[in-house]
Amino acid sequence: MAGLIARTKQVGIALADWMEERTGIVSLTQTFLYEPVPKKGKWLYTLGSATLFLITLQFLTGILLLFYYVPTADNAWDSIYYIMHDAYFGQYIRGIHFWSANVLLLVIGLHMMRTFLSGSYKAPREMNWVVGVFLILIVTILAFSGYALRWDQEGFWAWEVGAKIASYTPFIGSWAIITLLGGDTAGPATLSRVFALHVWLLPAVLAPLVGVHLYLLRKHGEYGAPFEYAERLTELRKQQQIRAYNDLEEDESSQEE
Amino acid sequence: MPEELQKDPLTRGQFLWMGALGTFVGAALTIPPAIFVLDPAIKDVVQGQSDVMGGWKVLGSIFDVPPAKVVTQLVEFTQKQTYDAGQPGVVGTGANMRPLTNAVLLSWKDGKVPRVLPGREEKRPLKPAEINEIGRELNVMANACAHMGCPTRWSEEEKEIVCPCHGGIYDINGEHIGGPPPHGLWRYVFRINEDGDIFVEHKFHVKSSNATRPYVI
User: Fold this and answer.
1) Quick check: B183 contacting A, CB < 8 Å?
2) Is beta strand B169-170 parallel, antiparallel or unpaired with respect to B160-162?
3) What's the CA angle centered on A174, arms A172 and A176, to 5 degrees?
């Protein structure tokens, strides 16, 4: 029995080595999975991963909902009613999409708060903060347009109110509201626009920006991670030594005079 | 020397040509999609077109407007959004056009029935002078709140027109008396015929000069 386990382990290692040599899969997995985080804060540094998980969940359940959702003013509400009452696991899939969207906004808020309170937005990580701000903006519009896609009284009027708010923009108010409504009155074009935004345009912008956000995180690492403290401390000691040495030299030269 | 550091020497002429070509290609790639998306706004703001077909619609009779309260009447206009681009064989049939339902609030000025109406028989045609007087006394208002467009309704208990969204309040004449709306309710362009029928167009005017447009209705 012991021999069998040992042999299986050997074969496993050999297989992993074979794959590693040809695809780099093992080192890639390590690169993607592990990121040192500061001791202080610990679990708070998983909020970004939680956000990524929830966004992935949104993509997956969203694609599934598209199998039944009908983006027309006449049938949108009925198609959701069908998902909720007739389709097997319809409530489950839509429930995940709905609740994870709600939790997503909460988790993004917490993630942003953690970043702010731990000072992780400071140099050289400013651009990651900026990308993050665009991401939260996109997610907010996604949440709002998803609300409108239900095409029930709540969702419909929320979109109307949002569009009316846009109409108060100085100079381009009427351009903004008509572009959001797809006409000078709300109608079928409104839902088409909301659908195009929610399902195609915004996710297409969101996905690459998430990539940039992650790339920048990997480039700079988490602020305050142990290795960074060590590096900064070494640098600090080196500078202190140089200063002390210079002071000493100055003292000696003044004594010689 | 800086010239030696330049990997890819470029003459001034080449540089300008590249700039011109870049501008052209950039414009060709971005302008058509932008105009495509902005199409409804261009048609409305620049060309002054509306999604809603013109024409008068019957709203009801002045004899059905009661004193001291506001009643809601539904009216259907025709909306040609998205579906109708005037395809041959379909034009004019209305088969692929959508009804746009508006809820119209009707009331008498200050809730008082005009003095020409009480005791009058409905059969007798109205005189032009009477029609003018009735027209001045009749409020034909859009139920869309002037603030964010939410549907308002008459509250019998409060004797006010109230908005459910942000608490806009209007009096029986649709004048703004409370909450965030910037002005009173929009008023439809309407006319009354000699039988006392009210006709409306999908056009609005308001008394105040800083009035916005309703859009959502």
Assistant:
1) no
2) antiparallel
3) 65
Q: Quick one: what percent of chain A has pLDDT higher than 70?
A: 95
CA dihedral B196, B197, B203, B207 (to 10 degrees): 30
- Helix H, strand E, coil C: the string for A72-129 is CCCCHHHHHHHHHHCCCCHHHHHHHHHHHHHHHHHHHHHHHHHHHHCCCCCCCCHHHH
For the entire predicted model, the pTM comes to: 0.82
When CB atoms are compared, the residue of A161, A178, A182 closest to B45 is A178
B77: nearest CA partner in chain A:
A185
> pLDDT tens-digit profile of A9-24?
999 999 989 998 899 8
**B98 Cβ under 8 Å from any chain A Cβ:** yes
Residue B48 confidence class, pLDDT cut points 50, 70, 90: confident
The CA distance from B129 to B148, in Å, is 38
- Cβ proximity of A54 and A210 under 8 Å: no
Q: What does the DSSP assignment read for B110-145?
A: GGPPPTTSTT--SSSPPPHHHHHHHHHHEEEEESB-
